[in-house]
Amino acid sequence: MIRRKTPDIPCRPLRLLVETGDGRSASAILENGFLRHCLDLGAEVHVLSPGACFEPFVERYRLPGTRFSYLSVEKVNRMRYRRRVAYEENLGAWLCKHGMAPLRRGLWQLLGERLTAADAAYLSSFIDEEQPDCFFSAHLNQGFGRGLVAMCRRRGIPTVGNVFSWDHPYYSQRSRPDKLTCWSPVVRNGLVKMRGFLPHQIEVIGAPVFDPYFDPDGIWTRKDLCDRLGLDPARPILLFATLGQMQMFWDETGTFRAFLAAMDQAGLPGPPQIILRLHPISIDHYFEEFRARKDVVFSRYVRYIPGMRWCPSREEAILAGNLLRHADVCISPGSSMTVEAAIFDTPTIVPVFNPSMSEEYERFFRQDWLNKHFHFLVEKDTVALAQSPDELIAAIVRALDDRSWLSEGRKKIRENLLGPLDGRATERLAQAVVKSAR
Questions:
Q1: Checking phi first, is residue 289 left (phi over 0); if not, alpha (psi -120 to 50) or beta?
Q2: Are 158 and 194 part of one and the same domain?
Q3: Lower Cβ count inside 10 Å, N or C end of the chain?
Q4: How far is it, in rounded angstroms, from Cα 162 to Cα 183?
Q5: Do 380 and 299 belong to one domain?
Q6: Within-domain flag for 8
Q7: Number of domains in the chain
Q8: How many CA atoms are closer than 13 Å to the CA of 429, on its beta-carbon side?
Q9: pLDDT given at position 363
Q10: Structural domain of residue 248, as residue ranges?
Q11: Global pTM value
């Protein structure tokens, strides 16, 4: 009997469909080589993003084996069953809070996933044509990929969602992919306890957003930083990182104004120089009154992508890392720099006062900060809390005198909250996504 040789059928590359609807998540992965890592692992990547209509954005990241298509944020946010979805989310959170996580997962499969998939119905033919091996949402909590996560799951396409920050387990997860990636064991445990995910669904990879901090070519000396910002390397540097315009009528300036007044009265030796690091959602002109001060230098992210808001370049991220590396003290009413400073063992102080709206500020910290993600920081004694300008000045003096103050607490942040700190989180993220596609 003659055996016929079966012709070799070429295997097509894995097809990854990647959603990056938000500028900061796009920056965190694309600036750090996510596409290159996926290509090296044998995958082709199709990126869905509002930035696909902005040629400089596409040209910055385009590689052989990649494609870019426009994702309409307006259509993504046009929810067909808004009230029902909100009811499903609230009921799901209640079930998790009362120890009924299996019911929460069942509720999603029976109701939430079906309702959410309906929001992406206009992309049904697109998915049929693409036939992706995996769909990846780069910022799960923003919800830009929620409809596609649900649609792909219902078609048997593996899905992965990245939990972008340390505080996101405290917010509603708008979709529930097969697999999640996150910073650390603390974040993973929060997703299990508060959102009802199973431990095996969650992979700890570290924070891709921190990868530039460990780039050997991006580590500056103190003099390098001071030369760039016009500072004196011999004088203390105080980094004040704002919280961001969290609400329309929220005041950000009161804490900083009270801090400066207390500094003027204290007359600290040096005297200290102050870097006012504005949060990307802080409003510049609210702080205009402070530009006249010679001891205050303004700093913020400036790169903007149409439809995606702020989208820091790797160079801007490297600057942020060096601000934290060389600051003598980090002061912040609650931005992520509160925990990022621990990477460089920089003493951190959290002012929980604002004379301009003291009642609202106290309620905000009590309800939305100290009893949620900041609970870990307070419970583990990792940062100093200042209840008044006088307490803030006293904490600054102590930190300047003894940089090792609360150093053990910052070690807890590094080991438990931030995850692996080796500059390879983006690489691990790509591996997790490709592994799901296989």
A1: alpha
A2: yes
A3: N
A4: 9
A5: yes
A6: no
A7: 2
A8: 33
A9: 81
A10: 212-417
A11: 0.91
Specify if 69 maps to a domain.
yes
The token duo for 375 is 């609970």
Q: Residue 411: what are its φ and ψ, rounded to 5°? A: -65, -40
* Domain of residue 83, CATH code: 3.40.50.2000
pLDDT tens over the chain, length 438 residues:
444 444 444 467 899 999 999 999 999 999 999 999 999 999 999 999 999 999 999 999 999 999 999 998 888 878 788 889 889 999 999 999 999 999 999 999 999 999 999 989 999 999 999 999 999 999 988 888 899 999 999 999 999 999 998 888 888 777 899 999 999 999 999 999 999 999 999 999 999 999 999 999 999 999 999 999 999 999 999 999 998 887 788 888 999 999 999 999 999 999 999 999 999 999 999 999 999 999 999 999 999 999 998 999 999 999 999 999 999 999 998 888 999 999 999 999 999 899 988 888 888 777 777 766 777 787 777 889 999 999 999 999 999 999 999 999 999 999 999 999 999 999 999 999 999 998
386 DSSP β-pair partners: 351
In a shared domain, residues 33 and 48: yes
CA distance 241 to 333: 8
Evaluated on CA atoms 317, 323, 324, 330, the torsion sign reads: negative
- Report CA torsion sign: 76, 82, 88, 93: positive
CA–chain centroid gap for 302, Å, is 17
d(CA 130, CA 64): 18
What 3-state class would DSSP assign to 240? strand
Same domain, yes or no, for 198 and 256?
no
CA dist 38 and 430 (Å) reads: 6
CA atoms of 430 and 136, how far apart (whole Å):
10
Q: Which two tokens stand for residue 407?
A: 């150093």
Are 187 and 80 found together in one domain?
A: yes
Rounded to the nearest 10 degrees, the angle between the axes of helix 253-266 and helix 389-401 is 60
CB 73 within 8 A of CB 50: yes
Both 367 and 332 in one domain: the answer is: yes
Residues 254 and 134 in one domain: no
User: Does residue 144 belong to any structural domain of this protein?
Assistant: yes
Residue written as token pair 């002012």: 351
CB-based contacts of 123-129 (< 8 A; 24+ apart in sequence): 123/147, 123/148, 123/151, 124/151, 127/17, 127/151, 127/152, 127/155, 127/157
Are 383 and 406 a contacting pair, CB within 8 Å? Answer: yes
